[in-house]
Write a structure and sequence with these properties.
With 612 residues, the protein is an alpha/beta fold. Helix content is 36%, strand content 18%. The N and C termini lie far apart (68 Å).
């Protein structure tokens, strides 16, 4: 019978728990079942990662010593020294290792995992040699990520029903992972890391699940059994009853793996420390309970975990909690905190490229009789800088300053930072647990851009809107379990004249919609936007006869030729400035819309709709 490989992604400061995993592999895995052990070095400093591994982990291997393969991330196409995000790269690496394994299946593990009893073939395969997995119902932010993965492969899944899990141990089918990687390469023209870094809701095992569904359904490939692990996550379980249930499950024959997340060690109560120490000593991972307890206490006092080095992230690792319980994006593919610290800036060629983009866009629009305006929406990190300890005493040059300084002509460029800071003293212009501005913040930006356009059109005044304080979660709050909630300011138009008459039902890039105003004597406008366009369009629609929404970072010439707008607005988040758009060569919104499905219409058909 064919063996399986093991695959573990690790960072240099995970070597202590990785050593525990190595010892458990020696104790509870047999060479008749397990072949190679791939240790994927995801350290930002690869040499430091290798050195730590060689001194702290490799000595634990004996019978498997010749089976160990340590692989640097760059061998799998991810170069951390050139700015790849370690949190995102570890997701991509878990699947990319399929290109090296010559086995039909490999078992993905975390450095935090360790075996607590003998791994048997029946734990991995049923009687028909079909791989085994288990079901899990996903909620909150994970549910949103599941939806995004299913949308990517255009598969219809009931999100309230059980799916496959999202955490190791995870036995994957090597050939299917290779096919998945090839499919992504075909669609994106780039590898899985690029896909995940461009859409942070696409997580590795949810992509895998969606691809299995795309290929006929998980039940075609997997046999469903019971959950094989017991895990104390950072935030769950919380109640004494649930904690006790998880710990006691380690006595079940079906549970062969245990793990404690790094930040959980500091939260452990004395009775929980005693339980885990006794478990480890009983299973032979430590010589006695005293040594096991000492290890737990050291981990609880540790201040050098990877997550903390990256800026005290919370939730799924991409959020940092600042003062006043305000949440900020962190450890994202744009390195937004590094941008605001002045540690990630644009090169001279990028700065010049941005100037050319803005100048070219203005000329293209002018040649069609339209006025052009680019509005960069400030990051919450700039508006609420005082709430983010990582920015204390820092006044750094960042991409927005570099681009603004390079421009010869600022007549097409808007950055409403001061307005949003001032507005935040009156009400919440940014949602405390969301990455975006509130509808009130969008209204403030709307007022600024209408003012900058300097054309004679109606503008919504303060008496035309109503502010209402609400309470709820946001995209950052949803990364927690249970979700974080906060008070925020909603903003409504009292007596609106515009209505949204159509949208294509596509999410994110490729989305299109149309607003029509009862006053058809007003100019028309096209808004090219990212997710910040959702809240501002309600206000813009009141100032134009027709407002065409195109979710794209580009200025798409075909849209301009068909819609013939009087005004063209680009709206984008500040953190995205590190990428210079290629208006002519990048994939258009129409192409994305066609691939994603929905109510696809050509620009000519959309124009016809708007004139009804």
């Amino acid at each position: 019978m064919e063996k399986v490989d093991l695959a573990v992604v690790f960072y240099e400061n995970e070597v202590d728990t990785l050593g525990l995993l190595a010892k458990s592999i020696e104790l509870y895995c047999d060479t008749s079942l397990v072949d190679k052990i791939y240790l994927i070095n995801n350290a930002v400093n690869p040499s430091a990662g290798r050195k730590a591994f060689d001194t702290e982990v490799l000595p634990f291997f004996d019978k498997f010593k010749d089976n160990v393969r340590i692989i640097d991330a760059d061998k799998l196409g991810i170069n951390l020294s050139k700015g790849a995000n370690p949190y995102l790269s570890q997701q991509a690496l878990k699947l990319s290792i399929a290109t090296m394994s010559d086995k039909g299946h490999y078992l993905v593990l975390d450095a935090k995992c360790h075996f607590i009893r003998e791994l048997k073939r029946r734990d991995l395969f049923n009687e028909d040699e079909k791989p085994v997995s288990h079901h899990q119902v996903h909620g909150g932010y994970v549910k949103a990520c599941l939806k995004e993965a299913c949308n990517y492969f255009d598969v219809d899944v009931d999100l309230d029903k059980p799916a496959l899990p999202t955490v190791p141990p995870y036995l994957v089918i090597t050939a299917l992972v290779r096919d998945l990687l090839a499919e992504i390469e075909k669609r994106e023209g780039a590898g899985i890391y690029n896909l995940i870094s461009e859409n942070e809701k696409l997580a590795e095992f949810l992509i895998y699940f969606a691809y299995l569904t795309y290929r006929g359904g998980p039940e075609k490939f997997y046999s469903i059994s019971t959950k094989p692990y017991a895990t104390l996550f950072t935030k769950w379980p919380e109640s004494d009853k649930d904690i006790s249930r998880v710990l006691n499950s380690t006595s079940n024959d079906s549970v062969w793996m245990f793990s404690v997340r790094a930040k959980r060690f500091a939260q452990l109560k004395n009775n929980e420390i005693d339980f885990i120490a006794n478990l480890w000593a009983e299973r032979g991972l430590f010589d006695n309970t005293a040594f096991a307890k000492e290890f737990i206490l050291q981990k609880g006092n540790s201040t050098a975990t990877f997550a903390e080095v990256q800026g005290h992230p919370a939730g799924d690792g991409k959020v940092v909690e600042g003062r006043n319980q305000r949440l900020f994006i962190a450890n994202d593919s744009n390195d937004v905190i590094k941008q605001h610290r002045g540690e990630k800036i644009l090169g001279i060629n990028q700065i010049k490229a941005w100037r050319r983009v803005i100048e070219t866009r203005k000329a293209v629009c002018s040649s069609r009789g339209a006025q052009y305006r680019l509005m960069v929406v400030p990051d919450a990190h700039a508006v609420h800088k005082g709430d983010l300890p990582q920015l204390d005493n820092i006044d750094a040059i960042r991409p927005i300053h570099q681009i603004s300084s390079e421009l010869y002509d600022h007549s097409s460029f808007t950055y409403p930072l001061e307005e949003l800071i001032g507005a935040s003293k009156q009400a919440e212009s940014y949602h405390p647990v969301d990455s975006h501005y509130t509808a009130y913040g969008a209204y403030i930006c709307y007022r600024r851009i209408i003012e900058d356009l300097k054309i004679n059109i109606p503008v919504l005044k303060e008496e035309d809107i109503e502010l209402i304080e609400k309470e709820g979660s946001g995209d950052l709050g949803e990364k927690f379990d249970p979700p974080r909630i906060a008070k925020f300011t909603e903003c409504f138009v009292k007596n609106g004249k515009a209505n949204k008459i159509w949208n294509n039902g596509v999410t994110n890039r490729g989305h299109m919609s149309v607003w029509v105003n009862s006053d058809q004597t007003l100019p028309s406008c096209v808004l090219f936007t990212d997710s910040y366009g959702w809240k501002i369009q309600r206000f813009l629609a009141e100032s134009f006869s027709r407002l065409y929404i195109v979710h794209s970072p580009l200025i798409e010439h075909d849209a301009l030729d068909v819609f013939k707008p009087n005004v063209v607005i680009s709206l984008m988040a500040e953190r995205f400035l590190i990428y210079t758009p290629k208006d002519i060569f990048d994939k258009s919104a129409l192409e994305f819309a066609n691939e994603k499905g929905g109510d696809f219409k050509s620009y000519e058909e959309i124009l016809s709709l708007s004139k009804v």
